[in-house]
## 1
Amino acid sequence: MVGLHRRVMAGIDFKRLSNGDVLATCIVSSGYYDDKDVGKGGSDDDVLIYCGEGGDPKNPCGNKVAADQKLRGANLALKRSMERKLPVRVVRGFRTSSQERVISTYTYDGLYLVEKHWEVRGDNGYRVFKFQLRRIPGQPALSEVKRSRLEQAPLQYRCVDPDVSGGMERHPIRAMNAVNDTRPIGFSYISRLRYPSWYDPRPPAGCGCISGCAESSACACAAKNGGSFAYGVDGMLLETRPLVYECGPSCGCPRSCRNRVSQSGVKVQLQVFNAGSRGWGVRSPNRIAAGAFVCEYVGEVITEREAGKRSNDEYLFDVGRNYGGGEACEEDSCFTIDAAEYGNVGRFINHSCSPNLYAQNVLFDHDDRRVPHVMLFALADIAAYEELAYDYNYRVDGVRDEDGELRRKYCYCGTFRCSGRMY
């Protein structure tokens, strides 16, 4: 609900007056901390005991900095609202869980008055502020909202396709749908890039390592990467780069080499699922660590000129201008990956203005920097069943049709950084 609570992370929203004083405007009782209702029924259901901000990470409020809570800022704002008998908006959070995920629902519960505050000592002896708030009578009862909206059963996903890849990946990629029984159709699954018949990429010169490229100083492929490997010994991408060279078919090192991370296909379990307004999306039933390889964006490799003729431009990934520092190229020497008719699980990964994946250019089976492999890596730790997304890197008002008219595509990622439009 836009405008009720402005602060992204903090539970107490307040405003600073021109005279320097502060007043609380809204609190969020998320259900994660030691906020609680006093009674089990009757008028006590309208009383909320709320924890202050700041303090000891091991106290009941679950705060992060080990110290006494201070009567300043947000905490002082609640006290000032109590002294002036001014109402405070309260937003309630409720959590329900299914077999696959926890769903948090937030709803506006109405206006409360702060009746009193006091101090307690946490388990480690740090000071914690408690505030007692009472709901102003005459507002719709929260219990009615709970019954009608908050305690409804969470989405139940059903498997509508046991393996979208048709056995072409190491792990089956199930299609899950909680809305209806439809499944992903209209394309042919491929696990490797599909090059045009006239394009004949040549294998690169390889390294002579036979021990898994243990020493970067002695590895010719590491030299291509500036003298160091892009991956740690655990296979995690250490940092994003314009281009990463992996060991290839001409190298003497084994398949277990630390510099062959992304070329062996999908290694994590992935699911395609109905993501509502975003269409089909991709998630994993397992946690994915930061820097881990997720999947390649696979499709047909076509020229930029050919891409302009395709009627469906929803699955185009332009790689033709991403090589060698971004030099200019002609339409027939710039390339695009089109996953509309032929593609892998990467075609279902949605855009986000706050992505958790990064598209990394990688070469291993040839040295043509105009046509790198697009490998998707985790930007940060990704929780189980969190939707996977990367930034499509469109520019608002930067896409035009054949007649030069601006085209618009709206964004539904729902993140707090969402611009509302992809282009």
## 2
Amino acid sequence: MKMETSILFKNRLSIFTICSIFCVLTYGIDRPRGVSMEKASFYQGGTEFRCISTGKRIPMDHINDDYCDCEDGSDEPGTSACNNGLFYCENKSYKGNYIMSTRVNDGICDCCDGSDEYDGTISCENTCEKLFAEIRAQQEAFRAKQEAGYKVKLEYIQNGRRTKDEKLAKLTELSKEKEIFAQERDVLQAAKEEAEVPEKEAKAKHEQAWEAVKAEKKKQAEAAAAAVAFGELDTNGDQIVDYPELTKHAEFDIDSDGTVSDEEAKEYLEDSDQVDLVTFTEKIWPNIKEIYKPIGSKEEAQSEPTDPTKQEKTSEEGEAPADPANAKPVEEEQMPDYDEETKRLISVADEARAKFDEADRKVKDVENEISAIKKYLELDLGPEEEFSALKGQCFEYTDREYTYRFCPFEKTSQKPKGGGMETNLGNWGHWHGPENDKYDAMKYENGQSCWNGPNRSCHVNLHCGAENALIGASEPSRCEYQFEFTTPSRCSAPPAPGTHYDHEEL
């Protein structure tokens, strides 16, 4: 038993000695194979090693002796003895990384420098320089893209600041103009109102005179109609209409019993036995004109029994008598033109109104321009106005089914490639990036509602690019869309040529 222990110890010592010599030549003193510089301090100095996670003490010569003493495998960074151990690939000229210790000396080159296959079973080509060259090419392409985009961004910033300054100056100028125009409008409004007073009086006088003429004509027409009716009712021609003459007209049958009684006739004569033309015109005619049926009218013919011997003449024998009830109404007379003085007053008022309208238009135009400038200034176009170049532009991206449209600070939409209605995917809402970089993304909200679902919305991710371009569109969730957009506005100042980037940054 002691002999076996002694042999094992000698073997461990031999392995440790070989490893130590290799580590001194390759990595430097006190840094065993498979250990990174950041963890080298755990393996330096003393005669004992403490397992990193548990603190268990083991002799220093048990490091990389191909026997797992620590539960965390920290005593075997350079062998495959521990299933949970980690081996550090230094990968000089490229990028160091960890692999599982079980992959050490397994016949497969995992580290680009081949350090994981050191037992000589296979020979690994050192590909670190090649990988580094590829990474450098990517880094240089990324730097060049940043540089090109940043140059454009500087122009955007310059133009954006100039535009903002110009709009602020224009706002001040327009505010002064508005004040002047408003004062002119007030003066012209007073002149307009002053000119409209005599115009209104003259037009009212003319219209009142015309109404009086129409009333007189109407009165005369009523008197003429009353005279005609009086003459028809006065069947004996004695210039008097009495109640017996009314009983011959069926339209005066109040109770609809087929006859007109004396009492019914007298009721239409205002309880009088008879009336003359003046009384008939003033008192009787206004009450009966709506029901009175003139002799020979269609209404009268319908109220009497049909007599085959009294048929209307055919077209061969001559036209039938005209039916007054079917006669076309006489068109109402047009009011005569204004007199010359009234026309002059109207012309003066028209000129005053035109001047006021022009002044009012100027005020409203200035107000609209002021409103548009204020709306622009309220937009958050970036800390340095770098996103101002996107305002007023639209960009499109087409996939197999749709053409997507992105109008920054306005809306997003999609339209079928084969034609059809455009669907609003969302209107400008707000910046939607993380707290430390809110300009990383945009949110467009309250788009067209989905069938049996919410309103559509769109999340726009912004990336550095040498030009403005919509490069992708998708629908990760129902009615929630995502656009990818490149723009110089998102580019940062590039590092100097040859600056090293961490691989993760790519």
## 3
Amino acid sequence: MTGIAAASFFSNSCRFGGCGLQFESLAELIVHIEDNHIDTDPRVLEKQEQQQPTYLALSYINRRH
């Protein structure tokens, strides 16, 4: 990974759907994404689970186990 790519990877900027908000810490960014961009409706989650995604958000895994 180049320096530019590494710098953008470690920024605390929300890139979810073009949001663009900046956060002081990674923890604040994660909470923002969970609260604003990830659907927690049980019906939606059940439908997503049935689709066998190729990856899962770490925050989702941590909440479920």
